[in-house]
Amino acid sequence: MAAANKVFTVDLGTSTLKFAEFGISRGGALTLLRFGVAELGLDPNKEEERAKFITPTLAKLFKEHRIKGREVLLSISGQSVFMRFVKLPPVDPGQVEQVVKFEAQQNVPFPIDEVTWDYQMMPTRAATGSEAEAVIVAIKKEVIEAEVEAVERVGVKIKQVDVAPFALLNAFRYSEPQTDDCALIIDMGARSTNLVFVEKNSFWIRNVPIAGNQISQSICNEMQEPFTAAETLKKGKGFVSLGGVYADPDDADAARISKLIRSTMTRLHVDINRSIAYYRTTLNGAPPKRVFLTGGSSQLPYLDLFIADKLSLPVAYFNPLRNVNLDASLNTAYLQQNNCYTAELVGLALRETGSCPAEVILDAPTLAARSDKRRKQPYYFGALAAWVLLFVCVGLYYNQQIVVANAVAKTLRDNAQNLETMAPKIETLAKKQEALTQTLDSVVRLGNQRDAWMQILAALNEKIPEGVWITELIPVSNPPAGGDASHHSGAGAEGTIDDVNMLVISGLYHANARTQSVDSTMVGNFVKALADLPYFDIDKNNITGTLLAAGGDPNAFAQKFSMHLKLKAPISLKPEAKKP
What we know:
18 strands, 6-stranded mixed β-sheet, alpha/beta
């Protein structure tokens, strides 16, 4: 299968990292080519060190599967994001985005400029009539930036960031036949459990902070064991106690652990019932008819029986790979053992096949800047191409004039041999021809001198950082020492500039078009970048001699700056004087 038809996905769970590589057919069908899971090994009480664990764990996982230099789709844990379903007043379609932004500012519990957020319009519910509804998803920029940087340190580039519950929903729609009944997906992870209600073409999501870590913590407290040992006991001996007339196991530790697990699951059941009641009464949703289990902690033995007994509903384990083809090279036993980790990976891959029921994109500042740069590249290349075309046309014109002049000169020289009797006239014509040749040679030299302008402008265009604009560029000659070069033309007696020794540049700058924040250091970095070029005479250790002014009103949209760029080699603007 061609590399262009492949997609690489990574899911950053709370305690596990998962990756998968899929092939996509022309019809949009998925084929699982590679899959891997690794434990993060992070103590939940040290969440601030999460980024330090992501990079080495992912690097080891990629090394085992010989993965490098890929563009990946990433999903992050639902507990890391703020999610809110909001109702919108009746507005024109063109004003929806403005209204949603207002709702985001009112509902997101952080300043809006400190978060990355996106939204999706929800289908109109039959019970709510024509009232519009949207789901808003937000995450603090520092949190998503840390996750993105940790992943990209491995040597991959992130194409898009999704949220785990949305990826799970897309995988469910792809794998399970759609019915009119309401289905409840219980995605039980390490730190939290996502409850996803799916009904016809609508959905609702709630995050409950009860999951695998709470079970391990209860074992840790009850048995006076460290958290890592409690995790081992949970995975080795843990199951959900069935209670009632069922006898306890012979292993005393297993019996204690099973009762602790049942106690935690009972608290989860209370939250599930509360969520179902809210969904039915407040959102006018239908009662769930089917329950699906997924997530790493859903593998506890007898959990399905416990949930089925408490909710009096049929419970099944969700199979995200139902409609996914499996490559022959896959380890089916390993895949079956870790099937509970594949839902988000499948949902991410589906984003590359076409439209999905849930589509949000959370851009980290790094990704947003990269995307903005890609959007502007065609304009940069277009401007550069226009300059190149201009100088090519001028060069062709002068070359043509040289060809014409040389042809005339050759004709005159040939005829001179036959016009000895007209020597005075020929001498006069020869002098005129020589003067014309000198003039044309000077024009050619001027054209060559103008190439220097193309090189300097191209260098400025290459080094100018994001958020900086040049509004004025003035060539000057022989500025007086300590004087204001911006008002000194360096004109000679005839009011013209012979040699350009310096460029006076004025402009505006700001750091980010979205945040509207300014930072004068970016102009200083611009000057330092120009110092590395062979055209300008700049002291990198004393850029104040070049950057004369930067900043101004801190409340302004953009700040002014002014710089004097001294040229290492002056550029002459006049051809050489005609020789006598």
